[in-house]
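Renewal narrative, Specific Aim 1. Our central claim is that a sequence can be written position by position from structural information alone. The example that follows is taken directly from our test logs and has not been curated for this report. It begins with the structure tokens describing the chain, in the order in which they were read.
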């Protein structure tokens, strides 16, 4: 699943008072509106890893959140290593 509901928030975003917008729709505060899908896995204790998936039309990076079987942290690390070998990403940067 996607890691976040949208790409990065503007540098002027006021996390205490502003609502996150996704495709022009206000979706609540930062936690509820931006990365609410991650919480159930954290609470359940499932290991998860976020892997880069490319860049959105606004030029900002996107990522994929992969959830593993309970207790399989090693499997998640193996998956990340395989993905990094197959598609190295550390040198990629969004356009300025």
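The sequence written for that structure reads:
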């Amino acid at each position: 699943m996607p890691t976040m509901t949208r790409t990065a928030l503007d540098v002027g975003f006021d996390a205490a008072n502003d609502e996150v917008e996704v495709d022009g729709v206000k979706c609540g505060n930062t936690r509820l509106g931006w990365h609410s899908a991650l919480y159930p896995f954290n609470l359940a204790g499932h290991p998860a890893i976020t892997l880069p998936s490319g860049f959105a039309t606004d030029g900002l990076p996107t990522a994929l959140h992969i959830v593993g079987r309970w207790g399989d942290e090693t499997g998640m690390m193996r998956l990340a290593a395989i993905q990094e070998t197959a598609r190295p990403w550390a040198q990629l940067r969004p356009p300025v």
